[in-house]
Automatic annotation (TrEMBL):
It comes from Frisingicoccus caecimuris. Homotetramer. SUPFAM superfamilies: ClpP/crotonase. This is short-chain-enoyl-CoA hydratase. Pathway: Lipid metabolism; butanoate metabolism. One of its GO terms (biological process) is fatty acid beta-oxidation. Belongs to the enoyl-CoA hydratase/isomerase family. It catalyses: a short-chain (3S)-3-hydroxyacyl-CoA = a short-chain (2E)-enoyl-CoA + H2O. InterPro entries: ClpP/crotonase-like_dom_sf (IPR029045), Enoyl-CoA_hyd/isom_CS (IPR018376), Enoyl-CoA_hydra/iso (IPR001753), Enoyl-CoA_hydra_C (IPR014748).
Length: 261
């Protein structure tokens, strides 16, 4: 992989760390890197040992968006193809079986912000800057930003950020709910790993169903969301993990490690 690094971390080797690794280009995403991300996610999906992912960037940027050198040659047809290609990768992230933590180490702009939006949880360095400056290039967000950003921060605030193209500080992003936690720059990966360890400790099947219930439930009306929740809730009562956890609770002992079945 030329544009990505992948490492396995954690006490039980249950955390995958994906690093966007084009620091000379502020981790801008070109077609090659997007395809690498798709292939890597497909590979990790099959590794049941991995129970949480962390996405971060090398150098002073998380991701500065699309590679303008490549995008400047884009046509109407190739623009649509690139948009759908990137959007499908982000959709894979959003519906990935395990939670994904975005560890935003620096600039998260344009497509970089869209990558962050596809993560389940966002932790930002206090020195990070986030924004949606596509309007300054006479285009609009094309990887899901016009849809995910309003769902996260509200329609009016999302329009303000996209209409003005302003970059905002990590503190402001935290204030409006765009990021969930702030970290000192030197503590960012440590904090992300601590959170990932907490997540990876729990039953992977229950975690998968929990993510499905919230993610899919937010895309439909309340009654349909409640039906999704009830169906997933009921299925977990047929698992070994549920039996062991509840027996351990009643017997006042620590449950055995969750097996995902």
């Amino acid at each position: 992989m030329n544009g990505l690094k992948y490492e396995i971390a954690g006490k039980n080797k249950s955390i995958g760390v994906i690093t966007l690794n084009r620091p000379q280009a502020l981790n801008a995403m070109n077609t090659e890197t997007v395809n690498e991300m798709r292939e890597l996610l497909d590979k990790i999906e099959k590794d049941e040992q991995i129970r949480c992912l962390i996405l971060t960037g090398e150098g002073r940027a998380f991701c500065s968006g699309g590679d303008i050198n490549e995008e400047s040659q884009t046509t109407v047809i190739t623009g649509y193809q690139f948009s759908r290609n990137c959007a499908q990768v982000l959709d894979t992230m959003e519906h990935f079986r395990a939670p994904i933590i975005g560890a935003i180490n620096g600039y998260a702009l344009g497509g970089g912000l869209e990558f962050a939006l596809a993560c389940d949880i966002r932790i930002a360095s206090k020195k990070a800057f986030l924004g949606s400056p596509e309007i300054s290039l006479a285009v609009i967000p094309g990887w899901g930003g016009t849809q995910r950003l309003p769902r996260l921060v509200g329609v009016s605030k999302a329009k303000q950020l996209m209409f003005t193209g302003d970059k905002i500080s990590a503190e402001e992003a935290y204030r409006i709910g765009l990021v969930d936690e702030l970290s000192e720059p030197e503590e960012l990966m440590k904090d992300a790993l601590i959170m990932a360890e907490k997540i990876a400790h729990w039953g992977p099947l229950a975690m998968k169903y929990l993510k499905i219930a919230v993610t899919d439930g937010m895309e439909c009306d309340l009654q349909r969301g409640l039906q999704i929740e009830a169906a997933l809730f009921a299925q977990l009562y047929g698992t070994e993990d549920q039996q062991e956890a509840m027996h351990a609770f009643l017997e006042k002992r620590t449950p055995k490690p969750f097996l995902g079945r």
